[in-house]
Amino acid sequence: MPIIEINDLALPELIPYVSSNEIQLKRYFEPDLGIFIAESPKVIRLALDSGYEPLSVLAERKYIYGQASDIISRCGDIPVYTAENSLLTELTGFRLTQGMLCAMKRKELPSADKILSSASRIAVLEDVMNQTNTGAVIRSAAALGFDAVLLTSACSDPLYRRSVRVSMGNVFKVPWTYINGESPEYVNYLRNCGFTTVAMALHSNTVDIDNPELKKAPKIAVILGTEGDGLKESTIESCDFTVKIPMANGVDSLNVAAASAVAFWELRKQQ
After folding, report:
1. How far apart are CA 93 and CA 137, in angstroms?
2. Is residue 184 reached through a cis peptide bond, with omega within 30 degrees of 0 on the bond before it?
3. DSSP string for the chain
4. Bridge partners of 123?
5. How far is 224 from 222, CA to CA, in rounded Å?
6. Cis amide prior to 158 (ω within 30 degrees)
7. Which end of the chain is more exposed for a tag (fewer CB within 10 A), N or C?
8. Which of 141, 128, 166, 120 is nearest to 261 (CA)?
9. pLDDT tens across 248-268, in order?
């Protein structure tokens, strides 16, 4: 594997690490699938374990021969770019706290039909655009036994660098894809697939999150809305249940990532 000392920050091969426009990275090989950036040795290992193809590595020297040497060995004959940390910070625009980035090729996403065929507990994100929240919801899904995450078309991409990092690499473990259609079309689709649909919303007509009807539902889709506005009214009206998490001390709501963790724990598969 070639170890390449960076002397010219304008090298075209370094564009994936310089570009802050992740939409451009997503279209890097257009019309073929694009690329994404995995950050930190732990996350890169998980991506490799999940079959993602590495294209190049950017790393501090001490990582190449130290704690990430196993990654270098696994990646085969791809370029490894290196420099002092200060130069890497100038190149990327941020400090590499974990010492390593890897440009990787995207894989074809599975269809929603395929994901739902083997799932009994799923989360649906409706227009959630904050990358941190997207990553945190997927991490909670992995930790609390949910089988998959579906996203509407307006959601931020789970393979954006911040989402991958916040998820701690769980975007490579939890099956996810985009769901077709707008509300209420996609809600009806989920119901036709056998899922009890649960809207998480601040609404007057709600049931308790520990409602027995929810506990005994064989398949549940928990639907969470965008930051600020929450779920669309058409989504709430179309769902089988609307659930509101009880609050204390005058707090009216939780961040969508925190709310997802509470909901996933309460509505997890019963043993």
Report:
1. 27
2. yes
3. --EEE---TT-GGGHHHH---HHHHHTTTTTS--EEEEESHHHHHHHHHTTPEEEEEEE-HHHHTTTTHHHHHHT-S--EEE--HHHHHHHHSS--TTSEEEEEE--PPPPHHHHHTT-SEEEEEES---HHHHHHHHHHHHHTT--EEEE-TTSPPTTSHHHHHHTTTGGGTS-EEEPPS-TTHHHHHHHHTTPEEEEE---SS-B-TT-HHHHT-SSEEEEEEBTTTBS-HHHHHHSSEEE-----TT-----HHHHHHHHHHHTSPP-
4. 149, 222
5. 7
6. no
7. C
8. 141
9. 898 878 899 999 999 999 999
| Local confidence band at 20 (pLDDT 50, 70, 90 cut-offs) | low
- CA 197 – CA 141 distance, rounded (Å): 17
Residues contacting residue 63 through CB under 8 Å, at least 6 positions apart: 41, 99, 100
Question: What is the Cα gyration radius of the chain?
Answer: 21
Please check whether residue 50 is in contact with residue 29, taking contact to mean a CB–CB distance below 8 angstroms: no
Cα 131 from Cα 163, distance rounded (Å) = 5
Identity at 241, one-letter amino acid code: F
The C-alpha atoms of residue 46 and residue 39 are separated, in whole angstroms, by 11
Measured CA to CA, the distance from residue 72 to residue 74 in angstroms comes to 6
pLDDT in tens, 83-105: 988 889 889 988 887 889 999 99
Residue for token digits 């990582």?
A: 63
Q: What distances in angstroms separate CA 237 from CA 11, 204, 207, 268, one per listed residue?
A: 53, 12, 14, 24
Neighbours of 3 (CB within 10 A): 14
